[in-house]
From TrEMBL:
Residues 12-106 form the ParB-like N-terminal domain. SUPFAM superfamilies: KorB DNA-binding domain-like, ParB/Sulfiredoxin. It comes from Halocynthiibacter halioticoli. This is ParB N-terminal domain-containing protein. Gene3D superfamilies: 1.10.10.2830, 3.90.1530.30. One of its GO terms (biological process) is chromosome segregation.
Length: 612
């Protein structure tokens, strides 16, 4: 091959009409949009890099061996005299032409995405539009917009992207953050876990780490309240640029706005439709059991009566509607007759009743009409708009849900297990009693020895302390055979083996006979409150407001008319739960409330029903 260092650099001005693409040029696939964009760039900035060409034997003109994209872009600019003659660097021989053709293609390297983000962001700050940046770089506007959306990323995030310590997808997730400290903390976690494999943090996990308490704009509360009202209340708004979703950064403000708008909307709906009152419920669905728990009764629409002619017309139109053969006027008439047939609420019914509204999953308001409050039912019955129930009063429903009761039951069992740990002989005697005294169908269930060890932990562990001895040590590493494993196990010593047996047995404790359980509790002097303190999370927020009001008054010896009782009753549910948590867990709070020694002892010993 010719020594390239000795070849002179020859540049000629060649008429564009005399140029063609050389067969030596290896690039054959081009995007028409990219060529058009490059042409626009050349039109604005000129031809910055010359073409490279070679005069092939037996042909006229110059074959372009390097610069095929520029040649095709220039072809689109031939109505501009500036580009009808082009500067071309001419290869002295075919070896040189081949080298130029392959070298330029091999050396072509796109900017790293991190560098593109920085460059595009810097150009935008000078006042260039995305379209102008696209022209300058020969890129599409769509690509420029995607890069500009990441231009605000912290420099450490872009550095990590360039170093391949995080992926492009992971980098995009950081665009939701405006907290530098949190950004850097999460970035270190992402880098430590890598970009691939089971341990790598997903985009969702990164976003949750950056904004753990955020609420998406698709949340039903956000849809119902709206961005403007939320911002007017002082709420901050962020955004996920790549999910095209607004993010509400202040959940507490959103909740306040939600509850306020729910109440005002309920009142307005009641007023507009002639009801006496309107109430909003924060749940996303209202079940019939919810209405029952609120002790509300229902009145129903008075059925409408159609004349004989109207009834015939209604049937006639109904057949047309079902067959999709009814015109618009017929459908309107059918709906009028339908409304009349359905009937409606009378003015007297509405004078004793109201509406409950709630916001469903999609953020739409749902209305339940014709509800009579408990305190209004006697008057409604007297007025004849509500029938007196013919059913006997059902037993009072426990305010404690089944799910909460499961947690409380586990805490009781845990306290019993903790107490038994200090009396292993009793635990073993209990096992012997079960195994030797069970006969036929009369079985005694104290241990479930057929199951592996399972830790007895409530779903909400807040406020519950489990004895560390109930956590078994790791088993001996297997040596390959059961005989060897057993030999290694015995080397722990008989006392250690028996200790593990007792702990395992106690971990299985599940006494189903109440009298037997009471006897065990008495023997071990079990004190459940030593291992359980009621908190807002583990108990109070999981019961209703009336339950908490009654408990507050009972513990502090308050009547319903007492100012302190009224103040507590006027708090929101979450505030009531927090107040009770402090009453149980904060000595300063009890002192400020003037709690007496008797009340202090009552609080220290109190347990929910079913746990005593």
């Amino acid at each position: 091959m010719t020594d390239q260092t000795t070849i002179p650099q020859i540049t000629e001005s060649v008429a564009f009409a005399d140029l063609y693409v050389s067969p030596l040029n290896p690039r054959t696939v081009f995007s028409e949009d990219e060529i058009a964009s490059l042409a626009e760039n050349i039109k604005i900035a000129g031809l910055i890099h010359n073409l490279a060409g070679f005069r092939h034997d037996g042909t006229d003109g110059v074959g372009v061996v390097a610069g095929g994209r520029r040649y095709r872009a220039l072809a689109l600019l031939q109505d501009d005299p500036r580009f009808q003659n082009v500067q071309v660097q001419i290869a002295a021989d075919e070896d040189t032409a081949k080298l130029w053709a392959t070298s330029e293609n091999a050396q072509r390297q796109d900017l790293h995405p991190a560098d593109e983000i920085r460059d595009y962001g810097a150009l935008e700050k000078t006042g260039l539009t995305a379209g102008q940046i696209a022209v300058a770089y020969g890129a599409t506007e769509k690509k420029v917009y995607r890069r500009l959306a990441m231009a605000g990323l912290h420099t450490d995030v872009l550095d990590a992207l360039k170093a391949s310590e995080i992926s492009m997808s992971q980098a995009k997730a950081f665009t939701i953050s405006n907290d530098e400290k949190l950004t850097l903390e999460v970035l270190e976690r992402v880098k430590a876990n890598g970009t691939k494999g089971w341990g790598a943090m997903s985009d969702y996990q990164i976003k949750e780490g950056l904004k753990p308490d955020h609420v998406k704009g698709s949340d039903r509360r956000a849809v119902f309240v709206g961005v403007e009202d939320y911002k007017a209340a002082g709420g901050r708004v962020g955004g996920d640029l790549f999910e095209d979703e607004t993010i509400f950064d202040d959940p507490a403000i959103l909740q306040e706005c939600f509850e306020a708008k729910l109440a005002s909307t309920a009142a307005q709906i009641a007023t507009d439709n002639g009801w006496t009152w309107g109430e909003g419920i924060t749940d996303d669905y209202v079940y019939s059991d919810t209405i029952n728990r609120m002790k509300m009764a229902r009145v129903y629409k008075v059925e409408g009566v159609l004349t004989e002619d109207e009834s015939d017309r209604y049937d006639e139109l109904g057949e047309l509607v079902d067959g999709d053969a009814c015109d618009e006027a017929g459908r309107a008439e059918f709906l009028e007759l339908q409304v009349k047939a359905d009937g409606g609420f009378t003015a007297e019914q509405q004078a004793h009743a109201g509406v409950v509204i709630y916001v469903d999953h999609g953020g739409d308001v749902e209305v339940i009409e014709g509800l009579v409050r408990h305190e209004d039912q006697e008057a409604a019955i007297a007025a004849g708009v509500l029938k007196k129930s013919a059913h006997k009063e059902t037993p009072k429903k426990s305010p404690i849900s089944a799910k909460l009761q499961e947690d409380l039951d586990r805490i009781v069992i845990g306290a019993r297990q903790n107490a038994l740990l200090d009396d292993p002989t009793l635990a073993l005697d209990l096992l012997a009693f079960q195994l030797t005294q069970s006969k036929g169908w009369q079985r005694i269930h104290a241990y479930d020895v057929s199951l592996p060890y399972l830790a007895n932990v409530p779903e909400c562990e807040t406020g519950y302390t489990q004895d560390k001895r109930l956590t078994l040590p790791e088993p001996v590493e297997s040596k390959g055979s059961k005989a060897e494993d057993f030999t290694a196990f015995r080397k722990r010593g008989h006392k250690k083996c028996m200790d593990m047996l007792v702990r395992t047995l106690i971990g299985q404790l599940s006494i189903s006979h109440a009298d037997l359980g009471e006897m065990i509790d008495e023997k071990t002097k079990k004190v459940t409150r030593e291992h359980f303190t009621p908190t807002a999370e583990n108990f109070f927020s999981r019961v209703g407001g009336p339950y908490m009001i009654a408990l507050w008054n009972e513990l502090l010896d308050l009547t319903d008319s007492h100012d302190a009782a009224k103040t507590f009753a006027g708090l929101k549910k979450g505030e009531k739960a927090a107040k009770l948590e402090k009453l149980f867990g904060d000595e300063a709070t009890r002192k400020a409330l003037g709690v007496t020694e008797t009340q202090e002892a009552r609080i220290a010993a109190w347990l929910p029903e079913g746990m005593v």
